[in-house]
Amino acid sequence: MQSLAAPLYASFKATGCIALARRLFKGGLVLCYHNVVAERGAPPIGDPGLHMRVGRFRDQMQWLAATYEVVSLADFLARMIAAKSLRRVATITFDDAYAGFFMTALPVLRELALPATVFIVAAAAERREPFWWDQPGVQSLATPAGRAQWLGALQGDGDMILRQLGVGARAALPDEYLPADWNTLAAACRSGVVLGVHSDTHRALTRLADAELRRELLASRDIIRLRTGIEPLFFAHPYGLWDARVRDSVRAAGYRAACTLDYGLVDPGADLWALPRVNVPATISSAAFQAWSAGLSLRRFFPR
Predict the structure, then answer these.
(1) Cα angle, residue 235 at apex, residues 191 and 265 outer, rounded to 5°
(2) How far apart are alpha carbons 35 and 51 in whole angstroms?
(3) Do the Cβ atoms of 200 and 122 come closer than 8 Å?
(4) Which domain holds residue 249?
(5) Where are the alpha helices (DSSP H) in 38-181?
(6) Distance (Å) of CA 111 to CA 17, 59, 70, 107, 274
(7) Which of 200, 257, 285, 293 is least surrounded, with the fewest CB atoms within 10 Å of its CB?
(8) What's the predicted TM-score (pTM) here?
(9) 241: exposed, middle or buried (C-beta count within 10 Å: 0-12, 13-18, 19+)?
(10) Radius of gyration of the chain from Cα atoms?
(11) b/e for 57-87, b at 16 or more Cβ within 10 A?
């Protein structure tokens, strides 16, 4: 299926299927990115699926601005709650609050007058250490079974995972690949970027005891409020992992909505605390990006 994906998406675009899907499907679009970095000739750094080059990002944003009504997450949710049409309405989110968002993506968004929501890992902003998944060599060791253990028995805990892999001190990475600092986050907030919560430590919440889960939901929000002066209203589930207990805990914590990484468009009747998104890989082609945005991801029809 992977080898057929590129020509299939190209054919969807050439035959008008993508444009037709945008007219037919009623759901709104919540895009999820992670990081945007400058154009470089050097080999990619970190998780190759997360760090999009700015040229590709700019092309996507220009197409999005010309094709969709792009609104804030709050406006998007207000329309959803009021049962207003979400067809060809989009909102943009970023997980992890990489410095690259503020250095490289935000100027593009401001140039095009596009709003965005950034979900912060509170402890990462405090420590400013590279995320575990960006460490050299981690991707070469990743297997489906290994990842299941990392996010299962090891709870998605970066320090535990790196110890198991025999990694000592975390390697230094360029600033774009680090979590943003609090001064950057607070300044961006004052200039109109909406900040949300992506937990305290980015562990797999489904694997945590109730007390730890509450801390991930509440302490993170308290730290963000203290450091930036704003009260975050929205949450994004780390690794996109959630279940009924986590979903109910997020709601009980007072968040107005929460985003998953489950693929799909958002219909007016969607669960506010388990919203689907279109998670955009860093190397996605133009045709595939447009197809996914219209609800035509092959994963939707062939999940395996």
Answers:
(1) 95
(2) 5
(3) yes
(4) 2-128+177-301
(5) 54-67, 73-81, 99-100, 106-111, 122-127, 138-141, 144-151, 158-164
(6) 30, 13, 14, 6, 31
(7) 285
(8) 0.95
(9) middle
(10) 19
(11) bbebbeebbebbbbbbbbebbebbeeeeebb
Of 146, 220, 230, 167, nearest to 193 by C-alpha is 230
On whether residue 46 sits in a domain, the answer given is yes
What is the signed CA dihedral for 208, 49, 14, 91, rounded to 10 degrees?
A: 50
Q: How many domains does the chain have?
A: 1
Tell me if 208 sits within 8 A of 238, measured CB to CB. Answer: no
Helix (H, G, I), strand (E, B) or coil at 217: helix
Which amino acid appears at position 25 of this protein? F
| DSSP string across 47-71 | -TTTEEEHHHHHHHHHHHHHHSEE-
Domain assignment of residue 26, yes or no: yes
Place of tokens 């690949």: 177
Q: So what's the pLDDT on residue 2? A: 47
**pLDDT of 42:** 65
CA distance 255 to 250: 6
Torsion of CA 198, 204, 210, 212, to 10 degrees: -70
Q: How many CA atoms lie within 13 A of 210 on its CB side?
A: 5
Which CATH number goes with the domain that contains 22?
Answer: 3.20.20.370
Backbone CA torsion sign across 147, 54, 97, 253: negative
Q: Closest Cα to residue 173, out of 45, 39, 51, 40? A: 45
Categorize the per-residue pLDDT at 6 as very low, low, confident or very high, splitting at 50, 70 and 90: confident
pLDDT digits 0-9 by tens, 83-113: 999 999 999 999 999 999 999 999 999 999 9
Which tokens belong to 269?
Answer: 């009747």
> Is there a domain that residue 160 lies in?
no
In a domain, 185, yes or no: yes
Spatial contact of 93 and 72, defined as CB atoms under 8 Å apart: no
